[in-house]
Design brief:
The protein is of the alpha/beta class and 138 residues long. It contains five helices and four strands, in the order E-H-E-H-E-H-H-E-H.
């Protein structure tokens, strides 16, 4: 299993920032506990980068490697480390799914099978609600 980990924080509080250090410690501990190994070339870090764009150096490198079929599984602490933009969720979903790569999150076990399922279901619910003339959720 070729495992990658991804960490991101918007605030650059050092080199690396304490938040990045904590994320990486948790991710490495989890991956090791599963019996997998993460080689350094599969550690992707965007320190001091906002989550509202996919234009981040480490994320771009990770996406290239996923699309090339070089990564089987990506771990991050939670979905907003990868993106805070709902439109980008679809892009990341299509890229990883096409490459046969799974994406999982430590802090959201409900998304372990497919971190996109929850978002996709919400979008389907929103489309259905709007189609029936109900613009507010219940």
């Amino acid at each position: 299993m070729r495992v990658a980990i991804y960490a991101r924080t918007a605030a650059c509080e050092g080199n690396p920032s304490p938040s990045i250090t904590r994320q990486l410690e948790r991710l490495r501990a989890h991956v090791t506990a599963q019996g997998w190994e993460v080689v350094e070339e599969n550690v992707f870090v965007d320190d001091g980068q906002g989550g509202y764009t996919l234009e981040r150096p480490a994320l771009e490198q990770l996406r290239v490697r996923v699309r090339a079929g070089e990564i089987d599984l990506v771990w991050s602490t939670d979905m907003n480390r990868l993106t805070r933009n709902h439109a980008d969720v679809r892009i990341l979903h299509e890229e990883s799914q096409s490459a046969g790569c799974q994406v999982r999150f430590l802090d959201d076990p409900a998304c372990e099978d497919s971190w996109f399922r929850k978002w996709s279901e919400a979008q389907g619910h929103n489309r259905m609600r709007l189609a029936h003339g109900n613009p507010t959720s219940r």
